[in-house]
Amino acid sequence: GGETVVHLKGSGKGGRNQETALAAAEGIAGLGGVLVLSAGSDGTDGPTDAAGGIVDGDTWGSLKKNGIDAHRELDENNSYTALAACDGLVMTGATGTNVGDLILVLVDDIQSEKRNGSNGSMNGKIAILRSLTGLIPSDVSLEQAREERLRDK
């Protein structure tokens, strides 16, 4: 167990889980079917209203495309702003529990799905993960999220 440590160098906004997710985005940049989620079980990360961050293989490029220098944001400890710009904040609200941090790496096994005749999509898996982490908008039910996932197939 334990939690990651952030060495403060800048004066930006963020927390250890947001920084972990943003840093991971560079490592998985360009990889299809890979997602990293890092969040605190209590629903808060650092002095922010976010529980953490969620990124995939497109996040780093998306930030760059939108004129955001993710390296600079990391240097300034400003992961919150960068993740907010790419819809990568995990927003759960206070959970009433503080078990620890969760870092999850989801890798889609496309070859296995093809062998088994499945056409499962990473987008569908991301939709379910987002719903479990509170990233589906509050006006969308889990059932609606599941229906959207089925439509994606």
Summed up:
The protein is α+β, with helices and mostly antiparallel strands and 153 residues long.
Write the SSE topology.
Blueprint: H1 16-27, E1 34-40, E2 52-56, H2 59-65, H3 70-75, H4 79-85, E3 89-90, E4 101-107, H5 110-115, H6 122-132, H7 142-152
Antiparallel strand pairs: 1-2, 1-4, 2-3
Helix pairs in contact: 6-7
Care to describe what's here?
- The chain is built from 7 helices and 4 strands, in the order αββαααββααα.
- It is α+β, with helices and mostly antiparallel strands and 153 residues long.
- It has a 4-stranded antiparallel beta sheet, with helices on both faces.
- Helix 6 runs antiparallel to helix 7 (142-152).
- It is globular.
Mean pLDDT: 79
* Rounded Rg: 16 Å
Q: Quick one: biggest sheet?
A: 4 strands, antiparallel
Separation of the first and last Cα atoms:
37 Å
Fraction of residues in β-strands: 5-15%
Helix-strand sequence: HEEHHHEEHHH
Total count of strands: 4
Instruction: Please tell me what the overall shape is.
Output: globular
Helical residues, percent: 25-40%
Number of helices: 7
